[in-house]
Write a structure and sequence with these properties.
Length: 326
């Protein structure tokens, strides 16, 4: 078994530095190419001031993360190397879906790229390929570990459809959380810290390394994405982060634990689903002023940094609960 502990700081620092360097190089190119994020007109009025802010910033940390994980996969080889390579492939393919969506939005100059069915079909396809490959190499079975329980639960045949739902659902939950300057970066940073701490406690090298890389990537991106943001990560970045978190946790057989740790992501997705269902059954009424929930808080008068602070605090609480659950 590989002792990953000496590599935590190295992996995080290397990813951070590469993210910042990539940002310094790519951001001027995005500005020259006028790769500006189309702003949703039905959103908070003050978001219109963000018009002209470049998108596709997720490329900064995608390049950095890909380099670092690829180097470790090559250096370690064996089962750990294959696991890292598979996780990276899943994250990159998911980012590819986001990139296609972002480029479609830029081409149309509006906040609509792929349709929801098109996007979900592609996500489902990539998730299925990932799951088949992981199963073929013996990297997953039908058991999952539950927080606050000592023994794993064998889901049998239910594992596979639930795994697909988990992979695509968590990806989209992180994607929905990416709506304010620094919001997804900050909450993903906390998830990275959770991965590292939990991995150390449980002896899971994959989570330790993924967490270290995730922390380095998000801190590096916050250099450009803190309020007021100089760049947005786009669906390219949010789907990459979502796939990285979902894929690593599934390979570690800890999806339920990560759902608890990522309670803010789950609630963001739930707020959208609840808003849509209630709107339909009530013939036009709304539960929230706007969904996802972070926009509801904005509409209530909170400024972006305050909302990000609230979400960060909630993310820390959920992460602590998941750590207590073991």
């Amino acid at each position: 078994m590989i002792d990953i502990r000496p590599h935590i700081a190295l992996a995080a620092l290397l990813t951070f530095l590469l993210t910042v360097v990539a940002g310094r190089v790519i951001l001027p190119l995005l500005r020259r190419r006028r790769a500006a994020q189309p702003i949703l007109e039905i959103g908070p009025a003050w978001h219109l001031t963000k018009a002209g802010t470049p998108t596709l910033g997720g490329l900064f940390f995608i390049i950095a993360t890909a380099i670092v994980l690829a180097l470790y996969a090559i250096a370690w080889g064996g089962e750990m190397g294959a696991t890292l390579a598979l996780l990276l492939a899943f994250a990159l393919l998911s980012a590819g879906i986001g990139l296609f969506d972002d480029l479609a939005k830029l081409a149309k100059r509006e906040n609509k790229g792929l349709s929801a069915p098109q996007k979900y079909f592609l996500q489902l396809l990539v998730a299925a390929l990932f799951l088949v490959a992981a199963r073929a190499r013996g990297l997953v079975d039908t058991t999952v570990w539950l927080p606050f329980f000592k023994n794993p639960l064998d889901l049998g045949g239910f594992y596979y459809p639930l795994a697909l739902l988990y992979l695509t659902g968590l990806e989209n939950a992180l994607n929905l959380t990416d709506g304010l300057d620094g919001l997804l970066s900050t909450t993903s940073l906390i998830m990275g810290g959770f991965f590292t701490l939990y991995g150390l406690l449980a002896g899971l090298s994959l989570l330790i390394l993924t967490g270290a890389v995730l922390m380095g990537a998000t801190i590096g991106f916050l250099v450009f994405n803190h309020y007021p943001a100089k760049v947005f990560m786009g669906d390219t970045g949010s789907l990459f982060l979502g796939a990285l978190v979902a894929g690593a946790s599934l390979l570690a057989a800890r999806p339920v634990t990560v759902l608890l740790a990522g309670g803010v992501f789950v609630f963001e997705a739930f707020s959208v689903a609840l808003q849509v269902v209630y709107f339909k059954i009530s013939h036009g009424k709304r539960v929230f002023l706007m969904a996802p929930f972070h926009h509801h808080l904005e509409k209530r008068g909170l400024r972006e940094p305050a909302v990000v602070g609230i979400f960060a605090l909630a993310a820390l609480v959920f992460a602590a609960l998941a750590l207590l659950g073991g």
